[in-house]
Amino acid sequence: MTATDPGRWSATELAAAFATRALSPVEVLDAVEHRIDRFEPVINALSDRDVDGSARAARAAEERHRRGEALGPLDGIPVTVKANLARAGVAMRSGCAGATAVMPTRDAPLVERLREAGAVILGGTTMPDWGMLSSGVSSLHGITRSPLDPELTTGGSSAGAGAAAAAAYGPLHVGTDIGGSIRLPGTWLGLVAHKPSFGRVPLELPYLGRVAGPLTRTAADAGLLMSVISRSDVRDWSALPPAELDWSLAGATVAGLRVGLWLDAGAGMPCDPAVREIAEAAGRVFADGGAHVEGIEPWLTPEMLRDIDLFWRVRTWSDVEVMSVENRALVLPFVRRWAEAGSGASGVDVLRAYQGILAMRGATVAATAGYDVVLSPVAPVAAFPAHWPMPWGEGDEGMAHIGFTVPFSMSGQPACSINAGFLPDGRAVGVQIAGRRFDDVGVLRATGWFEVARGDDSHPRWPA
């Protein structure tokens, strides 16, 4: 095992221990609760904590394991879900103090799948206002901080999910991503963070580019979680057809794969040379493993980034505009200013922005079609101060930081972040492994291979 504290064990390790009754779900929950008590006052990862519900679920799982009637490999394993994923009876405000609470009467599809599988849901995780920041700064929750260094950001918008994963509030955590919100916490926290193909994980409220997926400490755990949350649900009219996929990663190889090395996004913030070097080094690891690695020219344009930024500003302004004056004042000032800058856009402006998003989608699919996977930085910079809303602080640079991530969100292609190295000051840096449309398994298998093949000095350093 990787640690004496079972709260730090992987899901695959826990499932094996439960199967032999070497460990019980109640013992694991107790260990995780102790970790939460220690870390939570500092990192602020949880939007709510279901102590009674998780205790009941752990006891029920323990009894099933005692009878030899486990519901599956997630039975008894702790998990968290992001605050914007519905749980019946838990008010939702999408991280915004000014938003009117919505009270779901039914669980989101993936939450239903987790409960059916016997997972122990610890509670919800924090997010910034409407998920429109790449940090853990929220008008509702305050600041969520990195367990690796509380002075640094977690990334966002799946801020609490990332912090909970890095702090080992159990092994499995679910976030959402529309432009990088799973993968950015992944790169800045050293995690395996998988953005699934659009439609792979059913949602109750599908939206252009929006997905839900795992933030974990191992690739095998990401695959295990995907095997459950990707099961079909009729509520998602955008979902992919049901598929029986083999999510195991055993025996993965990259020998013979054609790998594109994408080091220049083409638009947005320039890439820190030290971050670029880590991606280049990852390319050499793939080449040493027998992959055919070649560079890809940039295809993203500044116009494409401006279009997605305008589209999201107007989308958010549509929520802010209908608020009362009092509630509007409660929105995080950065997000309020950013949304207000889109208030003057015309219908034609928004339509042209949407067409620009479609152009990004087409360009991404075309540029990557000749490769089995595409390797790149996740973000152009490493983690920044925790109190900054964006990588540049309080200024308005639009979406300049998501040039490597948002193209795969809009194209619907799967993409995963995994730690690949560290800057001299110790900040974690991940690489993104993106794949062909719908090939989530291929992406996770390449990620699992790299997890083993990367050098020892690239392994993340989890807090004990």
Secondary structure: elements and pairs:
Blueprint: H1 11-19, H2 25-43, E1 46-49, H3 51-67, E2 78-82, H4 109-116, E3 120-125, E4 137-138, E5 142-143, H5 159-166, E6 172-177, H6 183-189, E7 192-195, E8 211-216, H7 219-229, E9 258-261, H8 273-288, E10 292-295, H9 302-320, H10 325-328, H11 333-340, H12 347-368, E11 373-377, H13 406-411, E12 415-422, E13 428-435, H14 440-453
Parallel strand pairs: 2-3, 2-6, 9-10, 9-11
Antiparallel strand pairs: 1-3, 4-5, 6-8, 7-8, 7-12, 11-13, 12-13
What attributes does this structure have?
464 residues, alpha/beta, Amidase signature (AS) enzymes, two-stranded antiparallel ribbon, 13 strands
Annotated CATH topology of the largest domain: Amidase signature (AS) enzymes
Q: Give the DSSP E fraction (strand runs of 2 or more residues).
A: 5-15%
**CA radius of gyration:** 21 Å
Tell me the number of helical segments per DSSP (H or I, 4 or more residues long).
14
- What is the domain tally? 2
